[in-house]
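tl;dr need the bound structure. longer version: we got a ligand (coenzyme A) that a collaborator sent over and nobodys looked at where it sits. i said id run it. heres the input, straight from their email, havent touched it
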Amino acid sequence: MERLYITDVCMRDGLQNQCAQVSTEAKLALAQHLVAAGVASVEATSFVSPKAVPQMADAADVVLGLQQRLPTLRTSVLVPNLKGLRRALQAGCREVAVVLSATEEMNRRNINMSLTQAREESALVLREARASGIKTRAYIAVAFDCPFEGATPLDRVKVLAAEMYAAGADEVVIADTIGSAFPAEVRRRMTELATVVPLDRLSIHLHDTRGMGVANAWAAIEAGVRRFDASAGGIGGCPFAPGAAGNLATEDLVLLAENSGFDTGINPVALVSAIEFAESLLGRPLGGHSARWLIRQRERAAQTSTEGIARLNVQNSTNSVSST
Ligand code: COA
Ligand code: ZN
């Protein structure tokens, strides 16, 4: 079976704009739930200004905790600038992601830089990260539409993607930050982008604002994309992009992929425990479109195994009766 690679971003994209402050310990426990379900790669936190995103103030502690408890988990962290990269390196991070928005206004709102400054800073961060021997991802945010400037020209997205690839990004992540994309456009853009970044280095980050997440994921798969960001329970959004709702839910993407001939390494039914744990942290119901169905599958599996055990017990007692 062909592999589909999923990076779960619920710890970063998911938690960054939640009102409830989540403790470091709870974040680590969430990661343990994800790993128990087969998640092999996460975006764990961001080394941004704690004034801008208070939820991520414990970034170094999260990274340290993951290294101690889940040393084989592939862990990326978001860095907005050189200062963020240096903090990440000091914390022992092995992979960083820069975030370059494709429009002027989105860069201003998100990282207080012009588009030109953001391009230069992102390229610098990528080069320095590579020189330090760590892996890199480069987000191209608002790659479909911008909440401030409307439709983002594809030609510009191509130029920026090529630029980040040339600067050393191991992976270029095309982000539908506000979840406004539709499948035909996803197919068109990813096919075009594959002419400037090799498909095995191209990734997509989808939001489910208009319920198009799974359809868009399928369009990306058809365009040859095999690397995806998704968020367990669909938790997500961006505090600086009005209208950005939850992410494409990991469980929905896994269900789609596993029933379409791809192997993700993730057990969607086991993800339910991670989602329930996140619900207990955030105090509200979570879950992608498939979550309720997955819960029923878990109940059925539990019932079947209880019945199985009961049957075995009956057989055992019958055997022991007959043998005496
Ligand atoms: N980590 C921690 N602190 C940082 C930092 C980083 N990566 N970069 C800058 N700072 C600190 C500076 O040291 C300075 O601190 P001080 O006020 O105590 O002196 C303060 O932040 C302002 O620095 P400045 O360089 O002027 O930054 P800014 O105010 O223009 O903000 C960002 C720029 C990028 C730091 C800020 O906009 C940010 O963190 N944005 C977060 C974006 C985000 O997470 N978006 C969601 C994900 S896409
Ligand atoms: Zn996002």
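gonna send this back to them w/ a short note. The pocket of coenzyme A (ligand 1) is lined by residues 16, 46-49, 52-53, 78, 80-81, 83-84, 87, 99, 110-112, 238, 240 (CB under 6 Å).
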